[in-house]
Amino acid sequence: MTSPGRPPTSSGQRKPRIGLSAHLLSLAEDYRGAGINRYISALLTHLPQAGPQFETLAFVGEARLRDAPPPGLRLAYPLWPTANRRAARIAWEQLAQPVALWREGIDLVHGLAYALPLLRTARGVVTVHDLSFLLYPAAFNRVNRLYLAAITRQSVRRAQAVIADSANTRADLIRLLGVPTDKVVAIPLGVDPQYAPPLPQQVAAFRQRQGLPDRFILYLGTLEPRKNLPMLVRAYAELRRADPAAPKLLLAGGAGWRYAPLLGLVEELGLKDSILFPGYVPQADLPLWYAAAEVLAYPSLYEGFGLPPLEAMACGTPVVVSTASSLPEVVGDAGLLVPSHDSAALAHALNRLLTEADLRAEMRARGLDRAAQFTWLRTAQMTADVYERVLTGQPLPPITSTPRSCHLPQVSEPAGGYSDNHHIPGAEVPGGRV
Fold this sequence. Notes:
With about 425 residues, the protein is of the alpha/beta class. It folds into two domains: about 15-185, Glycogen Phosphorylase B (Rossmann fold); about 200-370 and about 405-420, Rossmann fold (3-Layer(aba) Sandwich). The protein is built from 14 helices and 13 strands. The protein has helices spanning about 35-50, 85-105, 130-135, 140-160, 165-175, 200-210, 230-240, 260-270, 285-290, 305-315, 325-330, 345-355, 355-370, 375-390, and strands at about 15-20, 55-60, 75, 110, 125-130, 160-165, 185, 215-220, 250, 275-280, 295-300, 320, 335-340. Helix 1 (about 35-50) links the parallel strand 1 and strand 2 (about 55-60). The relative contact order is 0.13.
């Protein structure tokens, strides 16, 4: 067997060694357990099965992972603590990790969130989840924004391959950072098995335990301007004017930046008794929150992928999303889509799902079918294929985004038409800008 530090031999004496830079992984039951963290956790779990031709080593800072390491995966810990310590993590990634890669004989290193060691001998793959720090810079503190912009630019430039979560993010990378089209591939995320329709008695017990109304509209995610919540609140106000008995709206999630103006808008529109703020929702409770809702409303202005609509569909809950960024790729023909700045269209779509039982049943069935196509094992298999191609010098596959192309359902135009000349397209090709 080849000793650590040497490149693989042509005689194939050992498996190629893959190093996963997973220092952002957190097992904490808080906001750090969402989003990118789920991607990292899923790859660590499924890559050994998806890529048995590789020997996989994960560089992690989460000490609690020692108690239950993923089967088939070796773990390596830094010389100093990096969990939830940004400066310590960056120092390890850029100064110490290159030495660790050499000592372990790593042939390819995958930066699972924006960053690669810039000084290294191994080939590199980096995943860029979104470019919100460039498109929505005010959402980040200055130091964090400048670091993300600098490390992402350098990492994609020096990587042999770049992975995006969606065709839309792939297009952003090409447009904003000049990444060559043949160097970046879109690999969709997956749904954890826990996201499935719970038993009715489980939902009823959860509803009673949480003190939830019998019917409600749900938004679930960080409360920040990028999520377009003022538009949702205005749409809900229109819905209530048309039907004062409409279900309450629950805006669930942790408070992000510029949260106060949202509260002010709710107060201004006289909706403080109709719009509730449950706060942060633990990941273990998410399936029950989704299943208890009549509909998930997710009118975000920008997403790298958009897990909440996919998770809601997996739990049997119909969804309404905006036509912005990657959301049409995720939802396909399994939900209603509205222009991201058209509150009248959103109010109308919500009303249809609340009042048309046949449409709600159809969207539920389509959503379950759609969500079943997104698995983390598939994400890991497509990622392992990128490793194989980079190590053997093969070109990356053509554009990949979602399991199948989507045809967006029409939403009937309300009386008087939609505002601002917006319309809901009958068909749209995800990632059409590329």
